[in-house]
Amino acid sequence: NYQIQCENVFFRYNSQTQYALESIDLTIPANQMTAFVGRSGAGKSTLIDILMGLNKPEKGQVLIDGRPLRSDQLTSLRRAISYVPQDPFLFNTTVRENLELVNGKATEGEIWEALEFSSAAEFVQKLPNGLDTVIGDRGVKLSGGERQRLVLARAILRNPSILVLDEATSALDTENEAKIQGALERLKGRMTIIVIAHRLSTIKNADKVVVLEEGRIIQEGAFAKLSVEK
Ligand code: ADP
Ligand code: ADP
C-alpha cells in the first residue's frame, strides 16, 4: 500500500493572493490512521485534494512511496482511494443493493464482511430513505448513523488501499460513533486511513494527528501529545 508524502507544498486557488496551503511537509504512513483537524477553512479538504492528485501543488511536490507522483499514476492512485464524503448519495434501494452497485463482482462473503465490519448487517432490510408503507423492518428509513455505517461498508467493499473519510458535521450518537471507530480500528493495518475531523473525540485512536490552521501545519503527532484543548 501507498505511503504518501508532501514536500514543501504550496497551493493557491485561481488567482488568490492568500495561500490555501503553505509549506506543507507531511508523511502519511501506509496502513495507519492519520487525522486532519482544524477549523473550517483551515485547508483540510485542499490538502486531501492535493494528496489524491486532484489538485497540483503550485510549489513543492507529492511523493508516492518516495517517488514524485507522475501524471500517468493518477488514474491508478484514484482507483486505490475510497473517498467517503460528508453527505454521500445513497440509492433508495436495499442496503445490499447499495453495496452491490459499487462492486457488482463482490462475492457473498465480501458483502457480508463489509456489512460486519461497519455493523451494518443489523439493518440490512432497511432502505436509505424509507418507504410510505412499512412492513416489519422493510421500508424503515435509515438513521443518520446507519447511513454513515452503510457508506463505510460501501467504501470498504471497494477494497481500497487508501480510505478517506470526510467526517459528517452532524454529531453522531456515541453508539454509532463507537461502531465506526471500532471498524476503523480493525481496518488499520489493511489500508491507509485518513480522516478529516471536526471533533477531537473522534480521533483518539489515530496514529497521527495533523492540526491545520490557515493553511499551515501547526502541530503533528500522537493524540496524547497534542497541546490543544481536548
Ligand atoms: P467544510 O469542509 O468546513 O464544511 P467547505 O469545504 O464547504 O467547508 O468550505 C470551506 C471554506 O471554503 C468555506 O469558507 C467556503 O466558503 C470556501 N469555499 C468552498 N468552495 C469555494 C469556492 N468554490 N470558491 C470560494 N470559496 C470556497
Ligand atoms: P477546510 O477543509 O479545512 O474547511 P478548505 O481546504 O476547504 O478548508 O479551505 C482552505 C482555504 O481555501 C479557505 O480559505 C477556503 O476559503 C479556500 N477555498 C477552498 N476551496 C476553494 C475554492 N474552490 N476556490 C477558492 N477558494 C477555496
TrEMBL record:
GO MF terms here are:
ABC-type transporter activity; ATP binding; ATP hydrolysis activity; ATPase-coupled lipid transmembrane transporter activity; cysteine-type peptidase activity
The main location class comes to membrane
In this chain the ABC transporter domain maps to 4-230
Listed under GO cellular component are: plasma membrane
Which compartments is it annotated to reside in?
Answer: Cell membrane
Has UniProt tagged this entry with the keyword Metal-binding? no
Please indicate if the UniProt record lists Transmembrane as a keyword.
Answer: yes
Which key words are in the record?
A: ATP-binding, Cell membrane, Hydrolase, Membrane, Nucleotide-binding, Protease, Thiol protease, Transmembrane, Transmembrane helix, Transport
Query: In which domain of life is the source organism classified?
Result: Bacteria
The protein's name: ABC transporter ATP-binding protein
Which organism encodes this protein? Answer: Oceanobacillus piezotolerans
Q: What is the lineage of its organism?
A: Bacteria, Bacillati, Bacillota, Bacilli, Bacillales
